[in-house]
Structures are given as C-alpha cells and as structure tokens.
Amino acid sequence: MDLRALWPRRAVGLPPGQRRLAVFPRFSDDPGRPPPVVPEGPEIQIVLGEEVIAVLGADTIREHRFEQRADFHCVTTWSVTGLRWEGAQFLAVWQQLVAPDPRTSDVGFLKVRGLDHYAAVLTVEDALAGDVMIADRLDGQPLDARHGAPWRLISPGQYGYKSVKHLSQIELHVDRPRSQLGTKEHLRARVASEERHSLRSGRVLRWPYRLVVPLTAALAERPLRRSARKTPQQGQGVP
Question: Among 39, 103, 107, 233, which residue has the least CB neighbours within 10 Å?
Fold first, then answer.
C-alpha cells in the first residue's frame, strides 16, 4: 500500500482537527491483531450481570433494516467521508429487546465487545443516538474482515474507537465499567468536542496522533494478508 495515500489531507467541512483520507484503511490500537475467526451462525449477546437476556442474529438485523450515509472519524485525525452503512438502528433494537425488561431501567453504560477481544465503553445516552447502528454492509457490500465482519457498531458522532468491529457482545452496566484502553478512552469521545483522550487536550494530540497514521495503517494490513493465505481449515475468518 502506498504510504502517501495514508497521509491525511486538509479538506473543507470536517470536524475540528480532522483531515481526509481517500481510502478507508484497517486501523487498530494493536495493528498486529489478526482478524478473528467468525463462527457459523454468529450472534450478538446482550448481557446483564451474568445473564444473557437477549440474543441478536441476522433476522433481528433484517427486521430493523436501516441505511445511512455517515462519515467515519478516527481519533488519530483521519476521516473518510460519505460512507454508506446498512444494518439495524441500535435504538430500534434496544426498544424491542432491552427496554421492556424492567431490570434494565437503571442501566447507564454499555461495554461493547468484539470477537477480537477489543472492547469500548459507551454511555446509554450516546448509544441511543438516532444514527448509532449495528452495521452489516458497507457501500453495498457485506462487511469484510478489514472493517469488522460480520457486524460492527457504528457511532458517527464519536471517534472510531467506539465503533467496535466484529461485534459479539453488549454488556449492560449500572455503574461505569473499567475501560480496556485506560485513560486513552474518553467516555464520550465526541468528535465535535474533540474529546480524543480522557486526560489530555484533543488539540494537543492532533500532530502526535497524525504522525502514526501511515505506518499503523500499513502494519494493520499485514495480518489480513496472512489470514488470506490460510485455508478455511487453518482458521481463516469469514469475510
């Protein structure tokens, strides 16, 4: 991959500190992490305490079909604009499967997990924004391993580290759970407010973050190439 294509460029109309990328790269806080193996008949569990109170599958996603164009903003200052996401609106799923259970009335936080063991913490308020969705298609194609197959949480108003790839579990919490990313994860991570980090100014972090973009994106492609060379019997994930 040409590293020059991975350098964010100035563009009109982007949020504070963001620059545009012409490509949508695979990106991660751990670029060496391989894409996970996706089981047959994947599901998303909704968990309260030790109990699985609901399970989402492909039928649930189809029932609440939702489509939108939304930009994707990475905390490291790159943005990809005009992406077409398809899937289910998270609010609609919540209203059907979670809200009717009286035990969930005091839930204020979610810990969202992926098959690759990554997790992010969201407030219920942010998760129930009308543009938050569980996506299964991007620009008319099923999500692939690069962008989070089989399902990805998409929260356009927050930095990309809240948009968990390979979505597999949503934990419900009354109290704020511990963050896997430590202080690097801002609870709200609102792009418009430049909430990049829980302790440091988002403006101060623009250049340190931006400098790592090309190398991180290039390194994150390597596990995909290794996975593609494997046969299904060797554990290749479903794209």
Answer: 233
> Which amino acid type is present at position 163?
S
CA dist., res. 222 & res. 137, Å (int)? 23
Closest CA to 75 of 140, 6, 159: 159
Domains of the chain, earliest start first: 3-26+41-222 (3.90.420.10)
Question: What is the mean pLDDT, run by run of 10 residues, along the chain of 239 residues?
Answer: 85 98 94 93 96 96 96 98 98 97 98 97 98 98 97 98 98 97 97 98 98 95 84 37
- Looking at residue 35, its pLDDT comes to 94
Residue with tokens 């100035």: 10
CA 11 to chain CA centroid, nearest Å: 24
